[in-house]
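Next up, sample data:
>
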Amino acid sequence: MGEETSEESKASIEKAIEAISSLISLSHSIKSFNIKWQLIRTKLEELYSGLAALSNLNSGFDPSLSILISAILISLKDTYDLATRCVNVSYSGKLLMQSDLDVMAGKFDRHTRNLSRIYSAGILSHGFAIVVSKPNGNACKDDMRFYIRDLLTRMKIGDLEMKKQALVKLNEAMEEDDRYVKIVTEISDMVSSLVGFLDSEMGIQEESAKAVFFISGFGSYRGVLIRSGVIGPLVRVLENGNGVAREASARCLMKLTENSENAWSVSAHGGVSALLKICSCSEFGGELVGASCGVLRNLVGVEEIKRYMTEEDDTVATFIKLIGSKEEIVQVNSIDLLLSMCCKDEQTREILVREGGIQELVSVLSDPNSLSSSKSKEVALRAIDNLCFGSAGCLNALMSCKFLDHLLNLLRNGEISVQESALKVTSRLCSLQEEVKRIMGDAGFMPELVKFLDAKSLDVREMASVALYCLISVPRNRKKFAQDDFNISHILQLLDHEDGSNVSSDSGNTKFLISILMSLTSCNSARRKIATSGYLKSIEKLAETEGSDAKKLVKKLSMNRFRSILSGIWHT
């Protein structure tokens, strides 16, 4: 008898599934009571998913399930009758039909809840595999939507393992096809269910944290997460979740707090303290710490939050320590965070200097320093550029830790992006007092700057030209510069408009090169080298088109040539 009962129960389930599918199809042809039928379809889809999960059940069925299936079949028969009457417009009154449809929607809702209770009570054996058939890549939106609703139903009615598997399938779908993300945000109760799972058991929490993080990657859907109350649960995951869940939570908060309006919500739920604890604890992985620094970087845009953080003991020292991390995300985000904290805050800068923050920034640039990536070096240089030139204390600390040696090495050997960042800082240094320029001249910066004068980037050429002009404004540097024949001849070649291979001749950089030559004419040896170089005719042609600076240069060189002629006559 038991075997017969099992077969009969399976047949009843399949009959119910087939009836639901038929009823959903019929409902799409109904032209009246659209909202009512849309609600009924939603309830039917949830019920369909719950029943479909039973089709793989291997064990016998409990009587309570058989009673439920019988009730579902009766409700389906009654609803099919209502659908037929709506299609044929054969009902007696609209109000009565609306009432009947509300009753049926309520019945299907109760059927779904009863099925969920049966799952939760463990009455059904879970000795089966849940096979969720995802539509192929060319599937229409309705098929994709039905699939997501199926997963949502499994999340609602299933036990912990079923919920987790449904969440895994959901994450796989969103990762493979962005269209699923849009569908998830459109389905009523979907996002709020995911947010609710953040306070669930570890495995469920982890998968739901991944899901909300994935959704947060799309700016247009972040509002849906915020309206669903996601921030509080995310903060609780930071406090109590496992490593993977915490990391997904921090990354999600980093996305959400790009909008400063959400910063207060994170603070109100205790997020600042939770993030600071993660950053100060050595047991957490680099990805989690780096993401936490990223969230805090966004939060310090709110002045009150920044003030709270700087007043906390050892906060600045904690982030300085993180600069020495082996992981790029930690280095980059901790440096950016410190930059945000110190910007326009002299007191915090003083703490940065006192706690050795400038030395840590310079250590990122040290060579060999395989622990620091090119991106880390760029961010460190940007921080130095923004922090050190507006503060005497920062600048003194910078110059006292062999910064110029590391900067020169990056100009010589760094990757292109790092070289450009180093050149920008070099240009800033060249605008400082004469003593700094003299030190840079002796250190060997001028030959390196000459190499950038014919770079492809106009910005790079201009920065190099301006920096070089500032350095040779110092008489000692001019003399040193003129001693190397290559330096002057290279600049003259760049100004030679007749050289077809010259990329700089028509670049707008000419005026800077002329200014450099004008400065060099103050040095006798440099002036003689320019005048006797063979490029004088090219300079005279420039004077016809490039304005007063070029004319002044020609005049000065001509006077020198005239003096040479007179000197020759006198000595004969």
